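can u pls check wat happens w/ 3-methyl-2-oxobutanoic acid
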Amino acid sequence: MTKMNKDQIPENVVIFDTTLRDGEQSPGASMTIEQKIEVAALLDDMGVDIIEAGFPIASDGDFEAVSEIAKNAKNSIICGLARASLKDIDRAGDAIKHAPRSRIHTFIATSPLHMKYKLNMSPEDVLEKVAASVARAKSFTDDVEWSAEDATRTEHDFLCRVVEVAIKAGATTINLPDTVGYAMPDEYKAMFEMVINRVAGAEDVVFSTHCHNDLGFAVANTMAGLAGGARQIECTINGIGERAGNAALEEIVMGLRTRQDILPYDTRIESKMLVRASNLVSAVAAFPVQYNKAIVGKNAFAHESGIHQDGMLKNAETYEIMTPESVGVKATNLVMGKHSGRHAFREKLSDLGYELGDNAFLDVFTRFKELADKKKNIYDEDIIALVDNEIAEANESISLVSLEVAVSTDRQAEAILVLNIDGKQVHNTATGDGGVDATYNAIKALTSDTQNLLRYQVQAVTEGTDAQAHVMVRIEENGKQVIGNGVDTDTIVASAKAYISALNSLLLKRDQLHAQ
Ligand code: KIV
Ligand code: ZN
């Protein structure tokens, strides 16, 4: 690594975000169309250059999501993925057609292992497919990316031949993925150098990294790819993706920004939006972020040990290589409590990015006071959870009126539940294996029992036994999956709210509710 000259302006590299495509392929991380549109809007605002919005041939839902995202795009280029088949490419071309700027990304495997066992094709057949698929993609847009799937396990001579064919057919970006997360940084760098040196026309295209994290090297490999000549980076928010995931966008952006003394690259990303993007993706995909995750984890800027705290008080640079504010963590987490008044609460909401109308403000303020009666210190995370919950509940047809749960070590738990369903109060008493099970049985008896609970997850919003619990559930009915969130100081009540919120989302998807 060489030191950067102080006056040297770093070169902007292209950020290609694939949270909505490769990220969504994470087991259990599927998102609804509305959620994908929300994530894409945030990525666009944050400065992502290219959003890979989905794989249009995969399902009608994927097609619709890509098409809607294309219609709403502002600055980002919207990209659809396609295999090397004309049907795939035509579907992708149709999905991206409304975007002000669009791209088709087409790929085929090039390693001996994939060609023989997965594709059952000879290298010559693959070369033909590449030429035909890139040419077809060119008939929809000038901006065509071609990927050599499993590039890092592809023979070098063949990799050079196939890249040359793709460039001749009109590809403008060449992606060399480490599909199975097998490469080491030096190898990945050398592969780019080798291809760029040997292939005719390489100087006219942009080379791209795409790294999976099976061995935990995705971000290191991405940085090595840049050193080897790549100028586009494929990545995802929170590093979600197939198996162990993809290179994490937030780590790359902050890595480049923090080490600009030796790395002559930057991105157009507004880093202050990174935590917001992380929270949104985690919430909509029901995919928690590990506490010690670099940049966006809950503990990323926490200093627990006395020595560290002492150093931090004397000079934050002792233990912080970047500021929490630079990634969107607020500098002061001003604690609110039951003595905080309306004015202070409104200021706090505004600091957190919420501008509520008078009625909504009063509702949220009432909820805040109720919470303050139960919990001494109320942190930003509590308020965010409370407002998000209130906004989500405002238009729901099912709401929780009251819940009483009796649990015992000697017998089954019992839940007495009252719900409001379309303005009518209904109640039920049910038993179950523990308070949550009894409550869910009572809710199902009052609504319908046709859903499967796929995931149930509890997280404490802050520290302490009086912390609010945030419960996330994913339920499924007739192949449709929805997510529900609930927050309360009591875990069972939060669980009830989460299930009810998921049912409300499901109601939007199906016409009638079998309320009894
Ligand atoms: O990992 C991979 O090879 C991919 C391709 C579709 C680019 O995701
Ligand atoms: Zn991938």
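Residues 22, 107, 147, 149, 175, 177, 179, 210, 212 surround 3-methyl-2-oxobutanoic acid (ligand 1) (CB under 6 Å).
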